[in-house]
Every structure is written in structure tokens, then in C-alpha cells.
Design a protein that fits this description.
Elements: E1 2-7, H1 14-30, E2 35-37, H2 49-55, H3 66-75, E3 78-88, E4 93-101, E5 107-112, E6 118-120, E7 130-132, E8 145-148, E9 151-155, H4 164-172, E10 177-179, H5 186-204, E11 207-210, E12 214-216, E13 222-224, E14 228-230, E15 236-239, E16 246-251, H6 255-263
Parallel strand pairs: 1-2, 2-3, 9-10, 10-11
Antiparallel strand pairs: 1-16, 3-4, 4-5, 6-7, 8-9, 11-14, 12-13, 14-15
């Protein structure tokens, strides 16, 4: 399967974000990709909460998905929109939702981010250092494994990468390819992006596909970029070495999954035990 990873610098409004992503999806499709993935927050990145809630589409609004379904149909690809940031409930909460569209535009499944990015990357109490996604977003409770073309696809989003048990459970459920669409901060990306994404591939013997946001965004955040394809042996077989918008195309050989898992079946031999 030829896959295409799209690296974006998503703008702060829905219409401009769609146009930005659409051009890169078209580039990936033109290169022969039949499975195309975009990063976390593909439909907008807006840190101003009142503006976000005024402009983000609602999860129940068909218009939230329609342009992305049309994009999949236009290019005849399976499109994994790494995530859409959508209002939920009465409109005062949100979800961070990955949606998978088939080449006919049908929704094949979705995943709501389970682990929310609640951190403080600066000195305790420093202004602007704390990020608390749980103040806005509702966490998901289900991690699907979807049959997409010839692959079994497990879906995670960004901060999930720090929770290895999720990946082990996806592998046990049959996933041979795991997506990690992300919007890593420049600080955490430089420190941890490489080792975390490679570790998840090594632990599970799975392909890891990690399309990322990159660059200085309209809302002032800076993301790491460096999208990559990691094989089941933990090798970065293809990657972008920058934080600019771009496209990464690679032919995924699923036979490599069975080879890696036969050599080191660690994830399947894990034992239950007590600690303390």
C-alpha cells in the first residue's frame, strides 16, 4: 500500500485550513498514495477559546465532515483526517476526533483522543506555560482497529504516544499499522518525538505513520513537524527533516509486520504481575 503523510501548518480558520490541507492531499494522491493521512487539528488551530467556540463546527453538523468526505472522493483515496477539533454537547465542550473516510466519502470509523494534553512545560506558575486540554475537550473511551483497504489500522492522537499500553492493546487487537497524527510542541518534539514514535513501533512490531503539524501557526503556537514513517523494526524509513508544510509518500510492506513479530514477540508474551 502506498501511503501519503501530509504535514501542515494549519491556519486558525476553518475555510483557510481546508484549502491548506486540500492542496497537500492532492499532492499525495498525485504521487500515487491510496491512503492519505493528515495531522491532528487539520480543520483549524485556534488557541483563543471564545474564537474557537464561535467558529469551530459542531460534531453533529454534517457540514463538519462534508468537505473532507468530498476530498476523499475527489482523489479516490482513503483519507484519515488526523483530527478535527469540533464543538460537542451544548457547544461549550469539544472533541478531538480522527475521522476515516473511504474513497466513496463514507465514514469508515472515528476515534476521539483518549489522553488529553494536561502539562506545564515551564516553571511552576509561569504565565502561559500550562496547557490543559481537559478544560475544553472530552476524552474518548474507545480505540478502534479499522479494516482499511488491506491493512488493520489502529488510531491514536499525539499525546497518546506517551501511553504504551494503548499501543500494545491495539496490536493485540490486530493492528498492523498504527497512526499517530500529531501537533507536538516544538519543545516536546525536539526532546521526545523521535524516541517515542520509534518506541511504539518497536514495542508492537507495527508500522507507525506519524503525520505532524509543523511551523509557526497563526494562533502563535509553534509545532515540531518532522513527519515520519517507521517500520516494525523501529527504523525511520522515510521522514521530513523540517517543520514546513510538505508531503511524505512511502510504500508500506505489510510482510515486515509478521517478520518483526516473529523475531521478537514481546508484546504477545507480556505477563500479568503484581507490583509493590
Amino acid at each position: 500500500m502506498r501511503i501519503g503523510l501530509v504535514q501542515t501548518c494549519t491556519p486558525a480558520t476553518v475555510d483557510t485550513a481546508l484549502g491548506h490541507a486540500a492542496a497537500l492531499v492532492a499532492e499525495a494522491a498525485a504521487a500515487g498514495a491510496t491512503l492519505v493521512m493528515t495531522p491532528e487539528g487539520s480543520n483549524l488551530l485556534q488557541r483563543d477559546r471564545p474564537v474557537f467556540f464561535d467558529t469551530a463546527p459542531h460534531v453533529d453538523d454534517p457540514a463538519a465532515l462534508a468537505p473532507w468526505a468530498a476530498l476523499a472522493m475527489q482523489h479516490g483515496v482513503t483519507l484519515v483526517v488526523g483530527s478535527l477539533l469540533l464543538r460537542a454537547g451544548d457547544g461549550s465542550r469539544a472533541v478531538n476526533r480522527c475521522v476515516v473516510f473511504g474513497p466513496d466519502g463514507a465514514v469508515l470509523g472515528h476515534y476521539d483522543k483518549i489522553h488529553l494534553f494536561d502539562v506545564n512545560l515551564g516553571d511552576p506558575g509561569a504565565a502561559g506555560a500550562e496547557t490543559r486540554e481537559s478544560a475544553v475537550y472530552d476524552a474518548g473511551h474507545h480505540a478502534p482497529v479499522l479494516q482499511v483497504g488491506g491493512v488493520k489500522l489502529g488510531i491514536t492522537i499525539c499525546y497518546d504516544v506517551r501511553f504504551p499500553e494503548l499501543y500494545r492493546r491495539l496490536a493485540r487487537a490486530g493492528a498492523d499499522v498504527i497512526a499517530i497524527p500529531s501537533a507536538f510542541t516544538a519543545v516536546t518534539g525536539e526532546a521526545h518525538w523521535d524516541v517515542l514514535t520509534r518506541a511504539r513501533a518497536i514495542e508492537t512490531g507495527s508500522w507507525v505513520l506519524a503525520p505532524a503539524q509543523g511551523g509557526l501557526h497563526e494562533d502563535g503556537r509553534k509545532t515540531w513537524g518532522h513527519s515520519r514513517v517507521i517500520d516494525p523494526w523501529g527504523r525511520v524509513v522515510a521522514g521530513l527533516d523540517h517543520d514546513r508544510p510538505g508531503v511524505l509518500v512511502w510504500d508500506v510492506d505489510l510482510h515486515a509486520v509478521s517478520v518483526a513479530r516473529r523475531k521478537i514477540p514481546a508484546w504477545s508474551l507480556a505477563r500479568d504481575y503484581q507490583v509493590g
